[in-house]
């Protein structure tokens, strides 16, 4: 019996650090001046919308429309990333943000870039990149207040647009991971029989994922269809060009956007669940300043202080919770479930408070819990697909948010205007998180049983051997 031969080969792997930390810094810089603006919508546009006669529902419609445009850019960004590079898409998004567009391009490309550089420290890297958003949410409320008081609404918008140009410098730090791959030596077992078989049939291409009626047909190393099989057997290699061309176009579109991901019920469950959590968080960010000013009777300075407290706690959470997750090997989906329960409790208690001290404390608790949802949402999506599918998977996740946010935002705004109660509106936002838990918890229990059954089966095999 032949003994398998062992060879040492060099393998290229992501650096899990190195230039990846510069990519993280660039993404953080871009987030400071771009992504953080989403939470400032009410503070910046609140008085202007009221002057135009719009209520909470009107503000929700405007914000939801902007979020739909942002999230709709996700799948497009994913397709462009596959055709070009993450750097090109990120720079294009940063340039477009000055004109009010491009946030979707930055979200998709920056996460895909970080995901390609990191494996073991992925949660930590994504958390550090999102710290930029937290820093922006801490500082920008005071800058917006100062600009509104001294330059008015139009002047503030123009100056904030110029500040967003700083994001271009951050996105330029993104480089292809192929430039920084690390060489690792590994031992590979060589089976001589397989080598001989491969040498004998080196002109035959085997593609087990594409079959016709359970049989894959090949000719000269190329796959042919069932209609072409009879022609090939008769020595005729001509094919109907129009049909083949139409099929190739649809096939390219199908593969470009990785639509096969939507065939998985679990993937659909994941993207809808993350969309519900983000919708709930974004709508709470919309009404939070209104709640502080109209229910708790806080002035703009006190409102900005509460929003800064949320942002500071958010930064702390993004720095500490990913370390906790990596240390105890907790899956991203489980972290989102735990923090969603945290958010439901904190927000429901906050809805009944009017004291400034208590509001500051609850703002900190809310920001701490919110941070993990923001960090883990794209990681939860990427954990359930191949590396080459990550751009499309994140894009489809953003598209699901774009489809859910506008109707949900309009409905939540209508609840606030119809009932006249912020408590009812916040409770409705928490109901979205409860719906999310109903969708995810049974699936996580099923995964736990599947892993337990698989471990038991592997243990039985080892005992028998």
From TrEMBL:
This is Monocarboxylate transporter 12-B. Gene3D superfamilies: MFS general substrate transporter like domains. Pfam families: MFS_1 (PF07690). It comes from the Eukaryota. GO terms for molecular function: monocarboxylic acid transmembrane transporter activity. Keywords: Membrane, Transmembrane, Transmembrane helix. It comes from Papilio xuthus (Asian swallowtail butterfly). The chain crosses the membrane at residues 20-46, 58-81, 87-106, 127-147, 153-174, 267-290, 333-350, 356-380, 392-415, 421-449.
């Amino acid at each position: 019996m032949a003994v398998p031969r062992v060879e040492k080969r060099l393998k290229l792997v992501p650096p899990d650090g190195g230039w990846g930390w510069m990519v993280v810094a660039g993404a953080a810089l871009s987030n400071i001046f771009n992504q953080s603006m989403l939470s400032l919508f009410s503070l910046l546009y609140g008085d202007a919308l009221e002057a135009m006669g719009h209520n909470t529902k009107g503000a929700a419609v405007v914000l939801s429309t902007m979020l739909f445009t942002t999230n709709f850019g996700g799948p497009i960004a994913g397709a462009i990333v596959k055709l070009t590079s993450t750097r090109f898409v990120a720079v294009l998004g940063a340039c477009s943000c000055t004109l009010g567009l491009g946030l979707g391009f930055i979200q998709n490309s920056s996460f895909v870039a970080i995901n390609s550089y990191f494996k073991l420290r992925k949660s930590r890297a994504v958390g550090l990149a999102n710290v930029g958003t937290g820093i922006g949410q801490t500082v920008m409320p005071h800058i917006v207040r100062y600009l509104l008081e001294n330059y008015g609404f139009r002047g503030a918008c123009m100056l904030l647009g110029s500040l967003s140009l700083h994001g271009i410098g951050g996105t330029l730090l993104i480089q292809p991971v192929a430039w920084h791959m690390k060489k690792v030596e590994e031992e590979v077992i060589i089976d001589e029989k397989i080598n001989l078989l491969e040498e004998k049939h080196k002109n035959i291409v085997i593609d087990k994922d594409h079959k016709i009626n359970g049989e894959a047909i090949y000719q000269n190393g190329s796959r042919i269809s069932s209609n072409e099989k009879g022609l090939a057997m008769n020595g005729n290699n001509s094919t109907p060009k129009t049909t083949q061309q139409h099929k190739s176009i649809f096939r390219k579109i199908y593969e470009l956007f990785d639509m096969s991901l939507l065939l998985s019920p679990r993937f659909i469950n994941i993207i809808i669940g993350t969309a519900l959590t983000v919708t709930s968080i974004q709508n709470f960010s919309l009404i939070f300043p209104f709640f502080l000013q109209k229910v708790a009777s806080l002035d703009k300075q006190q409102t900005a202080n509460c929003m800064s407290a949320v942002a500071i706690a958010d930064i702390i959470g993004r720095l500490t919770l990913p370390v906790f997750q990596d240390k105890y090997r907790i899956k991203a989906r489980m972290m989102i479930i735990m923090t969603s329960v945290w958010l439901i409790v904190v927000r429901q208690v906050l809805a009944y408070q009017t004291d400034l001290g208590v509001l500051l404390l609850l703002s900190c608790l809310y920001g701490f819990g919110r941070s993990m949802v923001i960090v883990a949402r794209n990681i939860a999506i990427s954990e359930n697909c191949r590396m080459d599918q990550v751009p499309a998977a994140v894009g489809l996740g953003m598209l699901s948010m774009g489809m859910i946010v506008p109707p949900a935002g309009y409905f939540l705004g209508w609840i606030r205007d119809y009932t006249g109660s912020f408590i009812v509106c916040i409770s409705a936002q928490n109901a979205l998180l409860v719906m999310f838990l109903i969708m995810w918890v049974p699936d996580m229990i099923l995964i736990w049983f599947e892993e337990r059954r698989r471990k038991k089966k592997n243990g039985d095999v080892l005992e028998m051997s």
